[in-house]
Amino acid sequence: MSEKELITPVTPEEADDIRVTLDTEDGEIVCRILTIFEVDGKDYIALMPLDDQGNDNAEGAVYLYGYSENEEGLPALEYIADEDEYDAVADRYDELLDEAFYDSIED
């Protein structure tokens, strides 16, 4: 088993239904997973907060966190406190959006 292989794999169909609930000072925020990606050998996750009806937020806000899984395959999120690290993660996420956009034009 490779290091990157998920212990509890998720099919693409299941991935669309997964929701992450963040506990914040302002209460719980329900998000959908946009993508999990790597920067400098570490995994990160992009989450989109949902509105009260369960739809994507109108502002297009995205939350970025460090991402890992424990031995049982349970996910853990880590706040990115370092500004340089956050900037690198945000830049890579923007690159992924650009790549997806250009791929959609070619199709």
Question: How many strand units?
Answer: 5
Mean pLDDT: 86
> Ranges with pLDDT <50 over ≥5 residues?
none
Total helices: the number is 2
Taken from the alpha-carbon principal axes, the silhouette is globular
N-to-C order of helices and strands: HEEEEEH
Main sheet specs: 5 strands, antiparallel
Task: Kindly name the structural category.
Answer: alpha+beta
Rg over alpha carbons: 15 Å
Question: Share of helix among residues?
Answer: 25-40%
* Largest sheet: spatial strand order: 1-2-3-4-5
Strand content: 35-45%
User: Terminal Cα separation, in Å?
Assistant: 34 Å
Layout of helices and strands:
Elements: H1 12-15, E1 19-24, E2 27-39, E3 42-49, E4 63-69, E5 75-78, H2 83-106
Antiparallel strand pairs: 1-2, 2-3, 3-4, 4-5
Structure description:
Helices cover 26% and strands 36% of the residues. The chain has 107 residues and is an alpha+beta fold. The protein has a five-stranded antiparallel beta sheet with strand order 1-2-3-4-5.
In short:
The chain has 107 residues and is of the alpha+beta class. It contains two helices and five strands, in the order αβββββα.
Can you tag this structure with a few keywords?
single chain; 107 residues; alpha+beta; five-stranded antiparallel beta sheet
